[in-house]
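Q: I have 260 residues here and want to know how they pack in 3D. Can you give me a structure?
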Amino acid sequence: MSFRPALILATVLAAWSAAAGAETIKIGVTPGPHAQIFEAVKPVAAKQGLDIQLIEFSDYVVPNAALDAGDIQANSFQNQPYLDNQKADRGYKIESVGLTVNFPIGVYSKKHKAFADIPDGGKISIPNDPTNGGRVLLLLRDKGVIKLKDGTGFKPTVLDVTENPKKLKFIEVDAAQALRALDDVDAAAINTNYATQAGLDPVKDPILREDPKGPYVNLIAVRTADKDKPWVKILVDSYHTPEVKEFVLTKFKGAVLPSW
């Protein structure tokens, strides 16, 4: 008769011990795919004693500020060129510890079925940050729409446009506001996470779409002082698992591509 209570007590103590030994970290993400993927990562990490709490940010500026300030322990929303630009501009001591997924950026239109249908002088909205705005200009260059100065690298601006035969007008807006601009322009470049939030299909709906290869793979960032802590390896290894990859491929059907 004493065996069952002893077993229950042992089970409770084991659960308490596991909970007490778990480490909790806060990770900043943007709504949409980044948050959804990390929901799939959470149970994998929990098995390794890492409790993940997600903090959602509605823009691309605050997550790095929050990480640098220590309000969160990691973030997942950006690519390397964007991180490099933020570090150069703001002096953040944060760095990449692992690659995640790629979101080929798309150009969408409610007025035209093909980019060639956009009239001369048409308005194109692009993100106003150097990285995302630059990648749109590179996309337009690669499609033969414009020409850019040599040596602009991954962050050209509208000032670097040397030839613009259709005299397109580039309207720079915050990336998070690109959807609102869609009604007022001929076409808008919209990041995948914001496009999916609005019910757009990032594979079928764009009239132009970025090549999925290149430098714009997203990453997990942590403070430089934390990069060698044990939880960082658990976090990255939990992300880079077959079950998370399968989730990405099944859930997003090509709109988001795993990088591992």
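Q: Anything worth noting?
A: Residues 3-21 form the longest helix (19 residues). The longest strand covers residues 94-102.
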